[in-house]
Amino acid sequence: MSACVEISWSEWATCPAVLRTPLILKINSNVGIPLASPHSPFAYPIWPQFSLVFTMIQPNESEANTIKTAKLPVAEYIEVALNVLAPIWILYFMCLLRRPFFHLNLRILLANFSISLMFLTFSRVIILLAYNGQMWMLYISMVHDACVFSIIDGAALLAGERLVATCLVDNYEKSRNWWIAVVLCLCMWCVNGTFAYFVDILALTEKYEVYYSPILTMFSIMLVMNCFGVGVFLLVNRYNKSRWKVDLQKNLTHRYQIKENIRTSKQLLIALLVDFVISVYFFVIINHRMSMRFTKNWVDDTLSQIFDFSCTLSAFLMPYLFISSHPRLRVIAKKHFYRIKRVNVKQQNEERRKPPGAMAQQEANVYFNQLTSSWDNAKVKTRNAATNRIGKK
User: Fold this and answer.
1) Which domain holds residue 163?
2) Strand order in the sheet with 3-7
3) DSSP letter (8 states) at residue 216
4) What is the dihedral of CA 330, 333, 338, 342, to 10 degrees?
5) 258: which residues sit within 8 A by CB, 6+ positions away?
6) Over the stretch 95-124, which tens digit does the pLDDT of each residue have?
7) Nearest Cα residue to 23 out of 10, 7, 369
């Protein structure tokens, strides 16, 4: 049997993790509302300004030791290392975005996407290394969830920008309505932040039958947005290729913008497909976990760890994909990372570019050195021959 004990918030926060949950939350009422499962990532207290009374169901020792886990500590160590290294790549990519290789609106959207990846890595490191069940960890979890959602629906913004660039092909390159991209990014953060808030709070304060449908609806909306973005992106890319073959008689600016749309779509396609795979996998795993009522089992542990690891790999590899798929960015990156080799080549070129007088002097020195060496060899041979004749006599 399990024992029920009423404790305060401060006492609950200092309890060992195995004793913290499941909880019954009472807010000025005798009716208890069950919180998330004992080992759910949503197991955080909320609204500390209210007078809360927690009823803790303390499991027996035999019950607490029967839960098995499939998480690999080695994978978490690798995940921490990648999360620490990923911001370096992301910052480098953001520095490259200062160059006008993309349209200003697209650069703003890519910078916003990079910022979300950076916050994703920072929050994930804190969750892995400093998880203590305190109130501030709930806010860190919300930031992390909002960044995950920004990866899921980021394809919709990029596809929308490419759609506008295709519709306004004649004058889009000259337009500088950067504030539209900024407003779209702010709206995206508001939507993702709201989703993250409701996902965490609903799982904490409501019964399973209450929060299951709203949360599943939110995730379905994000998945539909991602599918819509990828679909629009592919259609726009195909349309631009067809227009490039037809509009041969158009002016040079028109054809240049179509060519830029085709090139940019090709560069972003790989990243958007990776984003789409992550979105589908996230929807599958979250649907499975909610259907299992966030209970602890090795299947959920394995699926969750794979998803977290895939997000970390995305944050680490996305900047590389953006850089490697763009010819000019790739050339600049090679120059930066092979600067030592370039310096050596430069020194060799300087040797080759010496003035004629210096080259003549160097050749003369080589000639006289060889002549001196030949004379010395001749003297040695003459001396040896004379010594041999004297010895024979």
Assistant:
1) 73-340
2) 3-7, 53-58, 23-26, 33-34
3) H
4) 80
5) 169, 240, 243, 244, 247
6) 988 888 888 888 899 999 999 999 999 999
7) 7
Angle between helices 327-337 and 73-96 (to 10 degrees): 110
- 77: domain CATH number is 1.20.1070.10
Q: How many domains does the chain have?
A: 1
264 domain residue, yes or no:
yes
Count of Cβ atoms closer than 10 Å to residue 73 Cβ: 7
Per-residue model confidence as pLDDT tens digits over 307-359: 888 888 888 888 888 888 888 888 888 888 777 565 555 555 554 554 544 54
CA distance 325 to 28: 58
Is residue 63 domain-resident?
Answer: no
- Residue found under tokens 């703003």: 108
Question: 8: number of CA atoms within 13 Å, CB side?
Answer: 4
Residue 35 lies in a domain: no
pTM equals 0.65
Q: Does residue 34 lie in a domain region? A: no
CB atoms within 10 A of CB 294: 18
Tokens of 31: 């009716």
Q: Residue 91 CA to chain centroid, in angstroms?
A: 11
